[in-house]
Design a protein that fits this description.
By secondary structure, the chain is mostly helical. About 60% of the residues lie in helices and about 0% in strands. The protein contains seven helices and no strands. The protein is globular and about 50 Å long.
């Protein structure tokens, strides 16, 4: 007999293509897609491709600094602790803590990764 988690994983795997198509066509919001992606990860389902089909450099090249509160919001949005988010970005937990307090500011690749995580979730930077 299958567990509830196994049944949910099979269900998510079964609708993978449909979910990707709906997201690509804009029928699923970024936030809903990230939440779905996080749930898929929890049950061990295959990740979905979270791209809209057209590359837009503005999605990976931020043009403005990010506020400390926004960094914390991103972390909470993806359901990560400071240590988990720091690991995905490739910085020390203390550095992420300083960003969230405004003592330091992320720049370069770290800033780009924060924007990518906000838009696409942690699965895209693993």
């Amino acid at each position: 007999m299958r567990t509830e988690k196994e049944i949910e994983r099979k269900m998510f795997d079964g609708v993978k293509g449909i979910t990707e198509a709906l997201y690509r066509r804009g029928h699923i919001s970024d936030q809903d897609a990230i939440e779905a992606q996080n749930r898929r990860t929890e049950v061990g389902a295959q990740p979905i491709r979270l791209d809209r089909g057209n590359f837009d450099a503005s999605t990976v090249t931020p043009t403005q600094p990010i506020a400390p509160e926004h960094i914390k919001e991103i972390r909470k949005l993806v359901g990560a602790s400071q240590s988990v988010l720091a690991m995905h970005i490739g910085v020390a937990t203390a550095t992420l803590s300083q960003w969230e307090r405004g003592a330091r500011k992320p720049d370069g690749p770290a800033l780009r990764l924060l924007y990518l995580i906000e838009r696409h979730g942690l699965a895209h930077v693993r």
